[in-house]
Amino acid sequence: MALITCRNLSFAYDGKFVVENLNFKEKTIKYSSQIKGRDINSISGDEEIVRAYILTKLVNEYGYKPERIEIEHEYTAGRPHTITSRIDIIVRDDNNNAFLFIELKSPKDYSILDKDLTIEEQLFKVSGMEKTEGNNVKYLILYTLNMIEKNIIDECVVIDNEKFPTFSDWEKTRDFTDAIPVRYGKAQKTPYKKGSSKDLERNFSNEILDKLQKDLHNVLWGGGSTDDNEIFSSLTNLILAKIQDEDEKSNGDIYDFQSLTFDKSSSDEFESNDVLFNRINALYKRALTEKLNITDDIELNKSYVIDTKKFSLSKLKYTVQQLEKYSFVDGKNSLSGKDILGDFFEGIIRTGFKQTKGQFFTHTNIVKFMLWAVQADKLAIERINKDKEIPYMIDPSAGSGTFLIEYMKFITENIKYRFKNKLDTSRSVQDRIYSDWFYPDYRENK
To answer: What is the pTM of this model?
Structure first.
């Protein structure tokens, strides 16, 4: 996020300023003298804008006192004592314990960082130094801000450090919430509900899609224990389950494709990974029946959304958590007409199947050239007019599916738009085109 785009951010609520002075041109900043910690006077990068924004929200929206906030707390070790680590923001309670322990990132850095490594090294390990100083730590938070159209939203991972004292403890379940707790309250997660103020995001950019690909790659391919084809198969099944969930929900329904939490009164706030798996698996089986026309009970009974021996339940939860907020159905038109699913899968698999593993991929421009060279458009028109069929594309070593994806795009673009006038105008051909392939009722456009 360029600094210039932050000029419209408000750093005051109710007339109170946590940021007393901010000069974008001179790149200078001054925080309230009530805030403790390191004295910061310059804007060294976009991360400082993120800090200014969240500090203002912490005090004026979330109800924390500025005198209980410390920035850039330093931890020392060894002899002579040398500074080894800093944490960006600590919000302390009245007993001086760290209630919120916040590591900040700029939107750009947040989109490309290895979240697991960052959470382990900069939150869990540094919070251990805070505990060495004699203080408890309640919530670990990895935070940035994000802009959806003109709205600025928090984007964060909030982990209960009392429940998960170490990274290895947390890694087993990956339980986290996505909202900063208010007034020393409990971190909660409001479920996504169709037609509500917290519905799925439909207008998201290529940058967000790229971030999803990188986040999933870093976790799913982490450790190298899972085969690339297994990951591709699992992601395909999960996306199918998500599409099924979006298709079958009515206004007021809570989406099933998300990681849910229980009521605050519950002793165990997060649902178990097994409960999540069973709900997603039920979605997947309904999708097999309704979308792929698989009705054989024997086949359905042995079909699972993931192979739990090869794709752990913790990775299932992480994948659901990363995908749950985005619409893969209504969001398909948000990327300037691009195919979200095609771009998503091509990006994630191209990242996973690295050329360092000895696997190489045909560039999409070469694939497009080959489709034009074999005159696939003319063949398709001929087959549609004569046999009412689209020619099959067979890719015996699909890899990331580049040929199949580009062929699908090629046929759609040329038959539906560029060479539409070359199709036979008989009712049988037209009905076949629009009822079986391209869906919209063409009669409305006559």
So the answer is: 0.69
